[in-house]
Inverse folding.
């Protein structure tokens, strides 16, 4: 727990000192557009990998959007994260086609390989494991997506293999959203 | 002599199967100038089970190669491209000779998918070369009135391909009747059904057909702004849409006074969804574009009257729009010639699950489910027993094998308790547990319920709890009746399609597979041998050789036995992980 606390503090520091300026062009771009709340949050998440608390406050101050509305939207849509994520986000597909081809086994294998539960991030901040509804590559089921890369026809073994290869730096594209 | 053309399929599924590497390799070879050929990109031709696909077109015809890897590619380059001799054993589709895969295309009629897999989706010129933007130009040149356009669509019998099946022409007519200075046209590309990827393929493979459909719609209802609401999970589709819109703007097909008509102003924006299934519902989608939580609104007023920012709005699905230019080009009669009396034209299905030829098929309405599964789909994987197809995703239902003669049209499918839906068709075999499938869908709808209506929010949770209990072997007498009662109450008391249809998977599985529910509840058995808590692993003494492998892999030390002696499993310690079952080389372990 102690380690987690220290890490959290560090991130807050960096964001406060450096990163909030990065928001300016986004706010500038969307300030006066109708229906801007979701695009602003999406772009913010692209910047940081999640939507930091400080960003909410800054956006509210500068655009006039209500904090409560923003929080409502950010927690309604599955896309938004309020916590930092790992460098690689593993999205394991649990659509119908993947389910009947036993995607549960893939998630279980990855949980074991990474030592985290679904939705959690590894201690080294390298991987976040997520389940998604459907990636639309049903004929290659079971599938997972890491960054922009899709891996199909997975087995327990091959999914672990992918993780190992990323760890060793052979493959993988980090993804921020 | 004309160069040989080499075309690589670079849709999402092709890329996932490794088409990117194939393309890169071809590019390197081409750039090195050792062999001369033209290298082109296209998108998904629908044959997902054979990805990556490479098409070689020479003076004698076209040859589509399947499952191309580096070794095969070398052979194709050497034999076919250098020496003009097709490598017959790798060809999956050609008109020159019979291939075992030809059956996948026989019986398909490509209207919405007319260009998918044939053109480079990033080239507006290639789209135009295949009659692209011809229909809107002819509308303008012939000075067709709005009513003429709407009448053509009405006469064609086209019904909403997103699942609802509402006549498209009628929708346009309502939007046209409501006069307002500002009207909108929206393309619903929030394809959320798990197990469906028709819209993704159209957007990735032929984005201009959707844009043209929207422009025609805008002309018909006098809309000046369009939105495409696309899932963020489809990055490639979004990228290709952005390119397509950019190119259409440059050509003057989007913007002000388009196609030389004074006052015909129309432009299209893309709105990336943020991951909410309920946004496929039209009023929730509108709320989402407005920047709010995607919660459905009460209808009436319908969007045609008060939609986006309270202005008249028309919403159609991707596939619906992709059909429009074809209908205008070929005429309403040509379209209505396909299909059944009340469902005209064709429908695209994403054929997945336990099927040999999984992929994207477009078939005329009226074809039977058996024909799709066995003729186009090639039958069930590993020749297991066909059990059911799931149509319509979480809103749909399971149609059992004995109703395989059901024809595919809106009314016949509805009569079974399933719905046509957007076109996901997941095939299930004897190893799929129907109670587990019902649980799977309920879990999905429960998570995706927006929470506005109590019955949908709480009711799906209660139904899920019962289903989980049944699959864990804790089902009790009366559970089936409680499920049915809850199901009807949720259907009656929910505002939008999500809640009204969420119980369908449960109701249809109870209707057709009640015996499986009863086996779970009364006998504590899972007939499909899928629900782990209900399984027991045993060792057949006649087959066991005492090799000790199972004993070694067992994580809970539940297996007793010495070398060369028959082993046995202590049931009280068995955690039912199945490790021994998959490791045994003598089939001595059986599941009950």
């Amino acid at each position: 727990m102690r380690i987690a606390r220290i890490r959290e503090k560090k991130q807050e520091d960096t964001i406060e000192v450096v990163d909030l300026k990065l928001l300016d062009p986004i706010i500038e771009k969307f300030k006066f557009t109708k229906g801007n709340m979701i695009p602003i949050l999406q772009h913010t998440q692209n910047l940081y990998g999640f939507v930091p608390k400080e960003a909410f406050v800054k956006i509210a101050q500068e655009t006039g959007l209500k904090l409560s509305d923003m929080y409502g939207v950010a927690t309604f849509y599955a896309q938004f994260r309020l916590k930092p994520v790992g460098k690689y986000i593993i999205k394991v597909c649990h659509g119908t086609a993947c389910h009947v081809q036993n995607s549960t086994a893939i998630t279980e294998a990855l949980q074991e390989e990474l030592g985290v539960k679904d939705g959690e991030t590894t201690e080294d901040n390298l991987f976040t494991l997520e389940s998604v509804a459907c990636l639309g590559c049903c004929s290659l089921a079971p599938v997972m997506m890491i960054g922009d890369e899709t891996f199909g026809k997975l087995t327990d073994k091959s999914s672990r293999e992918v993780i190992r290869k990323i760890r060793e730096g052979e493959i993988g594209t980090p993804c921020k959203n | 002599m004309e160069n040989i053309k080499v075309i690589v399929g670079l849709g999402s599924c092709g890329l996932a199967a490794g088409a990117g590497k194939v393309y890169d390799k071809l590019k390197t070879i081409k750039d090195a100038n050792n062999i001369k050929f033209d290298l082109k990109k296209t998108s998904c031709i629908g044959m997902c089970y054979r990805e990556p696909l490479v098409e070689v077109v020479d003076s004698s015809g076209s040859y589509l190669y399947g499952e191309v890897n580096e070794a095969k590619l070398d052979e194709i380059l050497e034999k076919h491209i250098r020496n003009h001799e097709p490598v017959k054993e790798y060809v999956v589709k050609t008109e020159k000779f019979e291939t075992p895969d030809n059956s996948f295309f026989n019986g398909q009629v490509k209207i919405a998918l007319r260009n998918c897999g044939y053109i480079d989706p990033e080239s507006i010129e290639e789209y135009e070369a295949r009659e692209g933007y011809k229909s809107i130009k002819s509308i303008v040149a012939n000075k067709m009135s709005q009513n003429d356009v709407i009448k053509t669509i009405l006469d064609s019998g086209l019904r909403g391909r997103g699942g609802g099946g509402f006549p498209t022409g009628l929708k346009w007519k309502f939007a046209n009747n409501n006069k307002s200075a500002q009207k909108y046209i929206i393309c619903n590309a929030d394809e959320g059904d798990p197990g469906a990827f028709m819209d993704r393929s159209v957007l990735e493979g032929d984005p201009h057909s959707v844009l043209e459909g929207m422009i025609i719609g805008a002309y018909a209802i006098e809309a000046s702004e369009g939105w495409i609401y696309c899932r963020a999970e489809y990055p490639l589709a979004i990228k290709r849409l952005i390119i397509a819109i950019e190119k259409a703007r440059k050509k003057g097909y989007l913007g002000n006074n388009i196609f030389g008509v004074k006052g015909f102003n129309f432009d299209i924006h893309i709105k990336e969804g943020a991951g909410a299934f309920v946004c496929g519902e039209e009023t929730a989608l509108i709320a989402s574009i407005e920047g709010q939580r995607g919660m459905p609104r009460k209808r009436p007023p319908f969007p045609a009257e008060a939609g986006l920012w309270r202005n008249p709005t028309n919403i159609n699905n991707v596939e619906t729009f992709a059909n429009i230019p074809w209908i205008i080009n070929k005429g309403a009669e040509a379209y209505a010639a396909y299909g059944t009396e009340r469902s005209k034209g064709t429908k695209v299905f994403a054929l997945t699950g336990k099927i040999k030829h999984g992929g994207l098929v477009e078939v005329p309405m009226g074809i039977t489910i058996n024909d799709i599964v066995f003729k186009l789909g090639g039958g069930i994987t590993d020749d297991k027993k066909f059990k059911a197809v799931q149509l319509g995703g979480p809103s749909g239902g399971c149609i059992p094998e004995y109703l395989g003669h059901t024809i595919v049209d809106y009314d016949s499918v509805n009569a079974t308790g399933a719905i046509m839906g957007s076109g996901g068709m997941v095939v299930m075999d004897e190893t799929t547990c129907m109670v587990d499938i019902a649980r799977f869908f309920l879990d999905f709808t429960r998570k995706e319920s927006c929470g506005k209506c109590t019955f949908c929010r709480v009711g799906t949770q209660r139904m899920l709890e019962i289903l989980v209990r049944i699959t864990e072997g804790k089902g009790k007498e009366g559970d089936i009746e409680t499920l049915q009662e809850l199901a009807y109450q949720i259907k009656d008391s929910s505002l939008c399609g999500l809640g009204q249809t969420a119980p369908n998977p449960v109701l249809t599985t109870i209707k057709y597979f009640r015996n499986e529910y009863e086996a779970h509840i009364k006998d504590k058995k899972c007939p499909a041998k899928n629900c782990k808590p209900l399984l027991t692993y045993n060792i057949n003494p006649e087959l066991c050789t005492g090799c000790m492998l199972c004993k070694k892999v067992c994580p809970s030390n539940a297996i007793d036995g010495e070398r060369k002696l028959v082993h046995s499993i202590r049931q009280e310690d068995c955690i039912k992980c199945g490790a021994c079952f998959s490791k045994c080389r003598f089939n001595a372990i059986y599941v009950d």
In short: Chain B has a mean pLDDT of 93. The longest strand of chain B covers residues 346-353. Chain B touches chain A through 54 residues (CB under 8 Å). The CA atoms of residues 388 and 400 of chain B lie 4 Å apart.
